[in-house]
Automatic annotation (TrEMBL):
This is Pimeloyl-ACP methyl ester carboxylesterase. Residues 30-269 form the AB hydrolase-1 domain. It comes from the Bacteria. SUPFAM superfamilies: alpha/beta-Hydrolases. InterPro entries: AB_hydrolase_1, AB_hydrolase_fold, Carboxylesterase_BioH, Epox_hydrolase-like. The lineage of its organism: Bacteria, Bacillati, Actinomycetota, Actinomycetes, Streptosporangiales. GO terms for molecular function: catalytic activity. It comes from Actinomadura luteofluorescens.
Amino acid sequence: MNVWPLRHGCRSTLGEVRWDRLGDPAAPPLVLLHGTPFSSFIWRDIAPALAVRRSVYVFDMPGYGASSATEHQDLSLDALAGVLTELLDHWALTRPDVVAHDSGGAVALGALVDRGVPYRSLALVDAVSLPPWGSEYFALVGEHTDVFRRLPGPLHRAMLREYVATASSPGLRRDVLDALTAPCLGGEGQAAFYRQLAQRRPDQTYVDRIRGGYSAIDVPVLVCWGADDRWVPAERGRELAALVPGADLRVIDRAGHLLPEDRPAELTAALLEFLAA
């Protein structure tokens, strides 16, 4: 049984996007973005809490989770920022609040500063926003994608689970690790995973371009980070908060890169306080 079903689908320039909405449709809109190599599943504990007062939109980006994954799909941050823009149009949302994790942060930032998409506010959680980012495994795979994509399935599964586990500081329950890695298994899932990592490597050029716009952001910004993040160290969060005028910084103890998994209650509390303000 799918513990996190996305009941709706829409077409985008990169294929079908699976999405869902929680809460009162008349409430102020809030959009949640995931990162690489995850899916909207990371928001399953937080989205319902936020939906008490908000109309919460969750979706799997093209190439991830339940959304369309094809061989020659453009999964660059720039292309995904374009899909976010398409989705906001599809949902007829103007000036939503946006919460973004990992590479979803760069997607949200790009849509804001590069494409001029208006937000009411932006919360960035362990966000890809400033170089360098990624683990040693991320760098190694990016350099040798053609080799890794040919790994036998059981070996790929073992390496994938070890890799994803490093995103958590206290550690992931087995059922959670199963759910996080499931979309990246099997022939199509394995190919999609290595496409994701391969297309993140040249994205530093994109981030270098949009970072020049951070100082001009004129909406409220919250920067939340896990103190023990080994994928994107907390120092990146401090640098980002210093670049964005008026940004509020929260560093949460005993949490790694997967802050929504490691400390969902603390993150939810920080988001609710920020959104209420």
